[in-house]
Design brief:
Layout (H helix, E strand, L loop, with lengths): L2 E5 L3 H13 L3 E5 L2 H11 L3 E4 L8 H9 L6 E5 L4 H10 L3 E4 L4 H17 L5 E4 L2 E4 L4 E3 L10 H11 L6 E2 H9 L8 H14 L9 E4 L3 E4 L2
Parallel strand pairs: 1-2, 1-3, 3-4, 4-5
Antiparallel strand pairs: 6-7, 7-8, 9-11, 10-11
Helix pairs in contact: 2-3, 6-8
C-alpha cells in the first residue's frame, strides 16, 4: 500500500484527509507541525508527502529543503497561497507538485497517483519515446523510426535528460539553469528558450505545436510523455 505523510496544522482538514485516504486503501501518517513532519519523514519513509506551507513552527519551505537534503520522495504542496512566487519557490526547493486550497479530493488523489507513478519509473526506463523518436538515455542515442540518428549537442542532451528523467513534473527555469550552468543568476533566461527550440525542432513532429516538450509560461518546462 502507498504510504502518505500528511502535514497539516488545521486539525479538521488533517483528519478529513487521513480518513479519505485510509478509506481508499492508503497507509497514512499524520503530522500537525514541521518538526513532527521531519521526524515522521525520516522515521517512517513515506512514499509521498502532502505538505501545507503555513505550519506553526518550521515553515513548509524549510521542510521541503530539509527533506530534499537526504531523500527524493515526492512532495505535493497543499496551500492556500496562490501567488506564482510561492509556487516557483516551492518547486525550486524540490516540491513535485502544488495544489491550491480549496481543492477536490479526487484532484488530490489523482496528483498522489501521478507523483508515486513518476517516482517509480524515474530510474526504471532509460529508454523514452518523444514523438516518433526513441531516446536511449543510457546510450545517449536518439533514433527515428527509419533508423536515422538525431544529432544532439552535449548541452541539448543534458537539458533533455533533466526533463525525461522526471516525466510529467514541472521543472523551473532556475532548476534547469542551475543544472546546466551551476548558477542561474548570471545566465540569460533566453539561453533555455534557444535550446528548447532546437530540441523541439529535432524531436517534436510539429515543433511549432509541441506535445511533449512543454513550456509552462513564467515558470519552466515539462516533459509530457
Amino acid at each position: 500500500m502507498t504510504h502518505v505523510l500528511i502535514v497539516e496544522d488545521e486539525r479538521a482538514l488533517l483528519r478529513a484527509l487521513a480518513m479519505n485516504l485510509v478509506a481508499r486503501g492508503y497507509t497514512v501518517t499524520e503530522a500537525d507541525s514541521g518538526t513532527k513532519a521531519l521526524t515522521a519523514a525520516a522515521g517512517s519513509e513515506p512514499d509521498v508527502i502532502v505538505l501545507d506551507l503555513g505550519l506553526p513552527d518550521v515553515s513548509g519551505m524549510d521542510v521541503i529543503r530539509a527533506v530534499r537534503g537526504y531523500a527524493a520522495m515526492p512532495i505535493i504542496v497543499l496551500s492556500a497561497r496562490t501567488g506564482s512566487g510561492d509556487k516557483v519557490h516551492a518547486l525550486d526547493l524540490g516540491a513535485d507538485d502544488y495544489v491550491t486550497k480549496p481543492f477536490s479530493m479526487d484532484e488530490l488523489l489523482a496528483r498522489i497517483r501521478a507523483a508515486t507513478r513518476r517516482a517509480s519509473t524515474v530510474e526504471a526506463a532509460p529508454s523514452v519515446t518523444v514523438g516518433d523518436t526513441q531516446v536511449d538515455l543510457a546510450a545517449k542515442t536518439a533514433t527515428k523510426p527509419d533508423g536515422a540518428r538525431v544529432h544532439l549537442t552535449p548541452t541539448e542532451w543534458h537539458l533533455l535528460e533533466q526533463l525525461l528523467r522526471r516525466p510529467g513534473k514541472l521543472i523551473t527555469r532556475r532548476q534547469l539553469l542551475t543544472e546546466l550552468r551551476g548558477a542561474p543568476e548570471h545566465t540569460d533566461p533566453s539561453y533555455l528558450r534557444i535550446y528548447m527550440a532546437q530540441l523541439r525542432r529535432k524531436l517534436e513532429p510539429e515543433p511549432s505545436r509541441p506535445k511533449h516538450l512543454i513550456t509552462e509560461p513564467g515558470m519552466g518546462y515539462r516533459f509530457q510523455p
